[in-house]
Amino acid sequence: MILITGASGRVARRTAELASLLGLELRLMSRNPQRAPKLAGAEVVRGDFANPATLDQAFAGIGTALVVSGHARPGERARLHRNAFEAAARAGVGHVIYISLQGSSPGSKYPYSRDHDLSEQCLAASGIPFTVLRNAFYIDMFLERFDAHGIARGPANGGRGAFVSREDCARVAAAVLAAPPGGTHDVTGPEALSVADVAGRLGVLAGRELRFENESVEAGERRMTRTRQEPGRIELDLGWYEAIAAGELQHVSDAVRRFTGREALSMEEYFTAFPHLLDPLRPAA
To answer: The pTM is what?
Structure first.
């Protein structure tokens, strides 16, 4: 049996749907089981990374587990992930697949990437055979970065990233669940784009002008402090752009084609297939 954690989240939900189509026997774990997808033959259980007792029940009898990162502050997330890996070890799980981030390292500019590095270390120390899927930043994340005037700001400079669709990440995860390869793999889109490239192409798709304005870290801190954002949130938002500027996500991999047999979706292919995702960016009627 295969366990998918965080089954009510977007990537895990879609992975479960695709894995179900492959005929895999699934157990879906969520803190809110009522929000998990209703799939024929799939078992739904409550599980919370912060409550090891629920994890022991969720991981019992599992051959392969997909651990999707939980929601918490950097550092805290690594501790929660360790709880999941330890529960998998206690249950004798044969293989763990962990969804990480491209560019994860102790010196990453992005706090969550440093957090994922800690989580990867915990998984390696568990002794369980594992596969790490290091997803690039989701192209969907740009949809939330434009203000009411259609401007995204941040210290990205001219850095590029191989931004990936959530659909491709789910397709890869489902394929890997069926046949875990082991090792660590970057999962990226088909090309490395600057933030200005993304803004221009999203604008064409959404039918309005969108643009990127580069700003220094100091200017970003002042702007976000004025809007009363929490310091931790400021570090995350600016670090996201800084990681792009540092080239942490510029490598383009062939993982999507290698694992699924299909090329990674371009921005245009993705948002044409899922046009509703662009609704927040479209001009008001």
So the answer is: 0.95
Return per-residue pLDDT of the chain as tens, 285 residues: 999 999 999 999 999 999 999 999 999 999 999 999 999 999 999 999 999 999 999 999 999 999 998 888 887 889 999 999 999 999 999 999 999 999 999 999 999 999 999 999 999 999 999 999 999 999 999 999 999 999 999 999 999 999 999 999 999 999 999 999 999 999 999 999 999 999 999 999 999 999 999 999 999 999 999 887 777 889 999 999 999 999 999 999 999 999 999 999 999 999 999 999 999 999 876
Phi-psi region of 186 (alpha: psi -120 to 50; beta: other; left: phi over 0): beta
